[in-house]
Amino acid sequence: MTPGRLGFVVASTTLILDQASKLYFLFVDVLALREPLVVAPFLDFVVVWNRGISYGLFQQHTEFGRWALIALSIAAAIGLGLWIRRTNARFLAGALGLIVGGALGNAVDRIAYGAVFDFIHFHVGSFSWYVFNVADAAIVAGVAGLLYDSFVLEKQRLRQEPSRSGAAGDLWQNEHERRKVGREGS
User: Fold this and answer.
1) Of the listed ranges 76-80, 115-119, 140-144, 175-179, the one predicted with least confidence
2) What residues does each domain of the chain span?
3) Given the residues 29, 136, 149, 170, the one annotated as active site
């Protein structure tokens, strides 16, 4: 499987898992009627409608704010989708796919309900983490993967590149220039 295909499979799977979990707790096993649902001593399922972005930041209470967040999510998904198409790195494509799937999952909620349905609540003793959903977890994991790729895997890829002298270096330089021109032209 190519890196691009992998990224889009991860994005699609993330979107499907996110929406399936939300639909289940909204309409099948209606969580609002029996919350909090205690899953473990450190994990509850509760109903929280988030009108902002991650962790409840930038709460939007107007239609303009709602649609601005939808547009931002879709624009981010499109931009990252283009990055997925261009990368040759499987790990990077997977990390980007997590972010794209999560952004689209939360955009679907905003379109359908006017807010994002969050329901997973971790807590330990008096410490309580934010309530989140599968899309949020995917976005966080994708960003962590993106950072790991940028700071660790990219260095490994650079060390594995052919020497820039001689025939191999000429081939590398030609490929590098071709990619550079491709990026500048788009």
Assistant:
1) 175-179
2) 3-185
3) 136
